[in-house]
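Retro notes
What went well: the complex prediction finally ran end to end.
Inputs used:
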Amino acid sequence: MEYVNPLTGFRVDGRRPNEMRQLKAEVGVVARADGSALFEMGNTRVIAAVYGPREVQNKGQQVNSKEALVRCEYRMADFSTGDRRRKPKGDRRSTEISLVIRQTMEASILTHLMPHSQIDIFVQVLQADGGTRSACINAATLALADAGIPMRDIVTSCSSGYLCSTPLLDLNYIEDSAGGPDVTVGILAKMDKVTLLQMDAKLPMDTFETVMELAIEGCKAIANYIREVLLENTKRLECQRG
Amino acid sequence: MLQSKTFVKKTKAGRVQKVVREHYLRDDIPCGAASCSTCGAVEHPLSADAAAILVVDTNVVLHQIDLLENPAIDDVVLLSVVLDEVKNKNLAVFNRIKALCSNKARRFFVFTNEHHRDTYVKEMVGESPNDRNDRAIRVATRWYQSHLGENVKVLLITNDRDNKRKATEEGINAETVESYVRSLAQPGLLDLVVVSTSGDVTMEDVEDLRPSKKKVIYNEHKPMSEITAGLRCGIYHQGKLRVNRYNPFEAYVGSESIGDEIVIRGRSNMNRAFDGDIVAVELLPQDQWHESKSFIADDDEDEEDDVHLAPNNADDAPRKANPTQSTVTSSADSVSSRPVGLVVGVIKRNWNSYCGSLEPMPMPAGSGGVAHALFVSKDRRIPKIRIQTRQLGNLLDKRIIVAVDSWDVLSRYPSGHYVVLIENDINTRPFSTQVLACLPPLPWTLSPEDLANPNRQDLRHVRVFSVDPPGCRDIDDALHCTPLPNGNFEVGVHGSNKYAKCNFDLQWLWHIRSISIYTDIADVTNFVHPGTPLDEEAAQRGTSVYLVGQRIDMLPKPLTEDVCSLRADVERLAFSVIWEMTPHADIISTRYTKSVIKSCAAMSYVEAQARMDDSRLVDPLTVDLRNLNSLAKIMRHRRCERGALTLASAEVKFEIDSETHDPLDIGIYQIREANQMIEEFMLAANISVAEKILKHFPLCSLLRRHPSPTKEMLEPLLRTASSVGLNLDVSSSKALAESLDNAKAVYFCSGDLTFSEYYHYGLAASLYTHFTSPIRRYADVIVHRLLAAALDIAKLPPLFQDGPQLTGVADNLNYRHRNAQMASRASVELHTHIYFKTRPTDTEARIVKIKANGFIVFVPKFGIEGPIYLTPKGDKGGDWVVDEVHQRITKPGTSISYAVLQTVMIHMEVVEPQPHRPKLQLTLI
């Protein structure tokens, strides 16, 4: 299948290879949580809620009492994909993505400022259309910021792939299931440090570099957007306070 | 810039599912016109001073592609909605239009109307997808007109009556193809216009064909829904229709649902299906299965030929002899098992362009007017085709190519139009300037950088030589053989394009070769770099085509005959495979390297053979040859023990008159020991390379396999063999080769199959690839690149990361390879005809197959096979009785009988029963 039209250079959904899907973010969507956010990348829509920092509930899980314990739970809603199927909780894929998100967020949270406490991040996929783990990380970042948890930097994530000999930014579900390489990158935007890098196919070194470069560009664009959203949110809060 | 709009689509994948996809609408899509100042510039704009910018409808692209390919039509806008529709309906046409759009010499512009903010059209309630697309085309046309302003004329070309009417109502300039072409005033162009069928505009005024008077000749095809339903419940059977090459009124449909082949007899039962079409077949009741009356009665086409006698060919090889009346009477129950059916619908058409000539006819009165003519294809499997032409005088008595457009129930013959194309799809055009620009500067000499390259071994001191057919100029492989102090031999195979001992570094071709017997293969990859126009051209052509006295090259001549050719006494770059072998031909070690070689001799097979045979010669070169030969003999023996086939397929050789290009003499190509010696080392090099690349790239190696033949395929051979007491001789191994023809060796990508399927039956090798002829086969070029990457000399080109693309390349190579073979065969056939036309000959022949009304003979002297009839035309062989078991045909009451493998005297001459369709006729004397 032609994922990039050779005559016009457009992708199946009308984007150019280096274009992202439309982003949309909303902060404070779950009133109960300490921080929450809704994040959309095209048709992929996830919601994240953060509880904490609060007292460690299960002391057994605490490894180092001088640092905060970060926990993460990733779930896909039963209705998030085309066919509605009940998925068992804690399947391998969810467990892996939970772990990935936790590690990525841990790299940015200043855990040493919050000893004897725990932070819970819940991410739920409402609608899946490729790139869910990137969207979850971005949503988690927003939710953490909304909860006022101290962080080193904004963590953002974006995926890119390589199809029809072209590096493509932000794969949607059709492109993702094409079987080509799928590179997910997470970075600390200002510090320019990579916190996550995953790829599930073979790619020659030099091609890989251009593909990863593209994903990093995408991450930076997302970081700018997130910063804008947060700034606006802060302004709104300021107004409310008067 | 990004406007998102989602639309909802329902797809059926077992169950109904709602699919939601994003669809971005944008405002930055250029219109492609050079005169437009608002849009960004594009690479190949539509010309600024075009008389009109044409927007074409889907049906125009689908049916008038020959017209669009004509350079007179230019400045065409193709909407993406049109391209999508074309792609869904006819992939072949889509590929042609795609080639047109990417052709820089033509001004075809693709406008992505579906993603443009102003031209996107949402389906309205109750509107069919077709109507929506038509509306989208009109909206886009209108947008173009308003976007470009009044001084540019935008013209919608459509043959759809409804669309044209609506367009005119909406104030869009719209014309039919015919009226537009007429306005161009180029009469030749009108021939390319496909006459539209009844549903479209032009017919109504042209001819309102008194339908009552027209006779319906064929049954209507069943609607698609009925066919699918019928297939599911087993009433109909699906399969590919293959017309008997020797009897166009009989066809077979291989059906999986029955597990046997269904016979279709007569044109009316074939119901307008062409050879190669995928059809749905309904079985006739069993009591009609032997009825062969329908067979000839239905058609008035002069049946000049035998009906039954078919040589040993792919059409009937896998099964028993045709059931005929004579066999029915003699052994009534044994042959009645083949089901007979009739075609109820065509699922997929295989309409192509066909080569042939017009049936002779008187010139109609007013020349220049439209004349109807009947076209007779060279291929007898194709029915006559009706065409309309305005240049009848030009076309009569010429070889022309015609494309089929339609075949309705009212007409006996399909209708088509005249085009010009290349048969067998072989590209004979000269290389383009872009391609030639990729060539290294000439004259090419070895550069110091090549010598300094650490990956390139200097083998100029080694005694390398090549052995090739006489007159061969594209030498792509060479050998050397050096005795080592420990008593072993070093054998090298050095590759270029044929056997020669020059090392070539063709930067863009491939490198092979080395054995302590070195095999040096021309280093074509050194000159042919991936992704260059030269490489793309070579990949397209796939292979050089060898015709009698002529060659159509895959690569430009300077490369094939000079820079890459491992000629004698020049330094050339090569890719070498070097083995260390014991005197018992056991390989101790294998090494692969790029190299520089200097061939000391480019010999022909005859010369090499003479040297080996002349016991007085003891010079080092001759000793090398003899060493190689003895090693080759051991290797060959071993290979045969493993079960490799040695097929003496008869290759015909011509001596050509240099002035007239007419053949002067004809004979069988002689295989000498020297040929076998070279072949042996090339096989060994190929196998070694296959092992190496597969080890490094298990998923993306290009290999060659040959599936084992099934028992059925070998059955005719076994029957022949048993009738003579299992004594296989020349003609029967030919039969074996023919049986094996059904399971052809093919290229494939190693990731696509499991290891056990890699087997090459004919060579009895578990792995095989093509490495030794990079000058004339593109597969070898790919393998050179793989090997270079495996040796860490070069990077693996990106192509190899893309599985489907690599599979596509392999498929193209198989296709080109087959076409090249067919072209070579056709060339041999042509020259055979020319030869025997002036020289009717009496000669000895051997019977290879018995048929109901005659037998097939093989003429060893010329390597020709053909039918001999014992009964006059039309007679079904009633006088003769066939003994299937003993493969014998006898005339009851007389002592005359013929058995398989018997030698007979025959007379050969060329007759021309139909104009421009000469054939070689064999008669018994």
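What we learned: Residues 224-348 of chain B form a domain with the OB fold (Dihydrolipoamide Acetyltransferase, E2P) fold (CATH 2.40.50.690).
What to try next: split runs per interface for comparison.
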